[in-house]
Amino acid sequence: MLTADRILELKKEKSVYIIAHYYQRPEVQDIADFVGDSYAMAVAAKNSPLDTILVAGVDFMAESAAILCPGKTVLTPEPSATCPMADSVDIQHVLEYKERYPDSLVVSYVNTPAAIKAVSDICVTSSNAAKIIAKLPQDARILFIPDENLGKYIASKLNRSLDLYPSCCPIHAAVTADDIKEQKQHYPGAEVLVHPECSPEVVALADFVGSTAGILDYAARSGKKQLIIVTECGIMHSINKVSPGKELILAHSELICPNMKSITLDKILYSLENRETVVSVPEPIRSQAVTALEKMIAYAS
Ligand code: 13P
Ligand code: SF4
Which residue's alpha carbon is nearest to atom 6 within ligand 1? Predict the structure, then answer.
């Protein structure tokens, strides 16, 4: 029997709800019950119809599910699949900032470990950061962690100053304005769809800037036949599914997140067969982190 067929059989037999990110391998997206951006994944976990959730995504995504669903079992097929940007945050920096500016707000991108969410006032994702920050008190001093590029994009969109943390996604930050200009020369009629984790120089060349779900929606609605995709290559599978017939051009050959791609069908099968690895967040951290995540969901809707 094919691995994918065995997974479909086993997830039914064991009542497991599989949630995957758009950056997952095509074959992993295809066996999932739900595929979405990081915000939609968190909401899908919270509303999961089943008591066991398998998260095909990097560790902060599985942790968010565990934080939001204390009564449920959350499984990860690859515990070492992490996000280097999320791991780059030094908690000491955040605590010292809070001590220095007691009235400030710490807004953390969902790409953060649970311990950082626990000391944050609210979480955001790229799909809702502008909407949520616009609702925060206008005079509040804000530390935005950890994506400097997303922070700059939101600050310029809202015309509001944010204190930024010096970190970024190595995959998105590697794309240069020259890469985009070169693709535009080859495909002059194409639209450029950019994730806001890219540098401001790349964002400035975009026809559309948005989260993975935003890019997918825009691609489906676009009247253009050719689209230059400036985010991780996994999204192309989802775009091809909802909008077949469009020519998708990946802006840069290295737009591949190795951590996202470390999750395979074989690992998912092993995880389902052995009910491993269970994601657990120590209760004192979980109970503090859930406030920032729940607040995000409330402010985003
Ligand atoms: P989205 O929230 O757009 O899915 O992004 C998550 C991510 O890790 C982007 O690199
Ligand atoms: Fe992290 Fe970048 Fe991979 Fe997204 S693409 S999970 S931000 S390393």
Answer: 38
Fold of 85-168+288-300: Rossmann fold (3.40.50)
Please name the residues in contact with 200: beta carbons below 8 A apart, sequence gap of 6 or more. Answer: 149, 152, 153, 156
Q: Which atom of ligand 1 is nearest to the CA of 232?
A: 10
| Tens-digit pLDDT profile for residues 132-145 | 999 999 999 999 99
User: Is 175-254 a CATH 3.50.50.60 domain?
Assistant: no
Domain ranges in the chain with CATH number 3.40.50.10800: 3-82+260-281, 85-168+288-300, 175-254
Taking the centre of ligand 2 as the mean of its atom positions, its distance from the CA of residue 24, in whole angstroms, is 11
CA–CA separation, 15 and 129 (whole Å): 34
Ligand 1: which residue has its CA nearest to atom 2?
Answer: 38
- Burial class of residue 121 (count of CB atoms within 10 Å of its CB; 0-12, 13-18, 19+): middle
Residue-wise pLDDT tens digits, 220-250: 999 999 999 999 999 999 999 999 999 999 9
Q: Could you tell which of 233, 257, 261, 263 is best to mutate to test the pocket of ligand 2, judged by most ligand atoms within 8 Å of the CB?
A: 257
* Assigned CATH for 3-82+260-281: 3.40.50.10800
